[in-house]
Write a structure and sequence with these properties.
The protein has about 300 residues and is of the alpha+beta class. The chain has helices at about 1-25, 30-35, 40-45, 50-60, 65-80, 90-95, 100-110, and strands at about 100, 120, 140-145, 150, 165-170, 175-185, 190-200, 205, 210, 225, 235-245, 245-250, 255, 260-265, 275-280, 285-295, 295-300.
Length: about 300
């Protein structure tokens, strides 16, 4: 598993680099504007056009194109084939791990194509619980206040797989009681999941539908014991999360009873009762109930913190 950890670390570095590049080029004067400001028609006719515009667009999106990245993907796809997989994405999928959206975009920019959406988690990085999410770059599905959701980035794009829905209370000591309609990823069915906050501290993080493992599990087990399966749907994905270095995505085959459990293909890792199981969705809308006061930002949660 040492090679797997090394691969994940490199993908995270790749993604964090794109995040940093995107932030660097979000302000200041674009290349096109600088060329336009030259007030030299000969110079402008020579260089100002689609290519300069494309450069600004790529940099604003965090793009960093170079031959080294293309070679990285080639080498790692060859390594995966040596292990018996079609490519690196297929290898990671079997291991239950996903790559950051920014890394998948780097693959595309390098001529390798994007990874299959189910192998990609949403953009941005996580902040600590009760820390401001403002500059984390996460996908904002919308902001809830008083019985309605104000639009944010909208539903997840088709290039990204389903995500845990992260609710972050934006005000101090606020009380919020509402039910949200969460749209599944595979079949576009929905689940109604309640959020109840009572005097929560500012920036408290809550994952909609979270269930703790009722008992520990071993690698190879096919059941995830939970107290309730109400937030989950057979045929949809879940994330088993114990830490940033111990997690995996599973496809639920059935909702089991006696004991209450999620039946999944054999899991890759052992987990303790500290682990959480999160349902994964594509989008969220307001459902019902508007008790309490305070606003809540609803984000698509990245699977893990990424760093350079």
């Amino acid at each position: 598993m040492a090679a797997l950890s090394a691969i994940i670390g490199q993908l995270d570095r790749m993604a964090a680099g794109r995040q940093a590049a995107r932030a660097n080029y979000a302000t200041g004067t674009d290349f096109w504007d600088r060329v336009d400001a030259a007030a030299d028609e000969t110079y402008e006719n020579a260089v100002k056009g689609a290519e300069i515009t494309a450069l600004d667009t790529e940099l604003a999106a965090g793009g960093v194109t170079c031959n080294g990245y293309a070679r990285w993907w080639t080498l790692h796809n060859l390594y995966a084939r040596e292990l018996g997989y079609s490519d690196l994405g297929a290898y990671l999928a079997v291991m239950g791990l996903r790559v950051p959206w920014e890394a998948s975009e780097q693959s595309y920019d390098s001529g390798n194509g994007r990874l299959t959406a189910t192998r990609v988690f949403p953009k941005g990085t996580l902040v600590a619980n009760e820390a401001a999410p403002t500059n984390a770059g996460m996908h904002l599905l919308g902001t809830y206040l008083a019985g309605a959701i104000a639009a944010g980035d909208g539903a997840l794009p088709t290039t990204v797989g389903p995500a845990a829905l992260l609710a972050i209370n934006l005000g101090a000591a606020a009380t919020v009681g509402a039910t949200f309609t969460c749209t599944n990823w595979v079949a576009a069915t929905t689940k109604s999941i309640a959020l109840s906050l009572s005097g929560a501290a500012q920036y408290t993080q809550t994952v909609l539908g979270e269930q703790a493992l009722a008992s520990g599990v071993s690698a190879g087990d096919i059941g995830l014991p939970v107290s309730s399966t109400a937030a989950f749907t057979a045929g949809e994905y879940v994330l088993v999360w114990e830490s940033d270095s111990l997690q995996e995505v599973c496809l639920v085959t059935t909702l089991g009873t006696g004991p209450t459990r999620l039946v999944v293909p054999a899991i890759q890792n052992a987990y303790t009762t500290s682990a959480k199981v999160w349902p994964l969705f594509r989008s969220v809308a307001y459902g019902s109930g508007a008790s309490g006061s305070g606003s809540v930002a609803l984000y698509a949660r990245p699977d893990r913190i990424i760093a350079l």
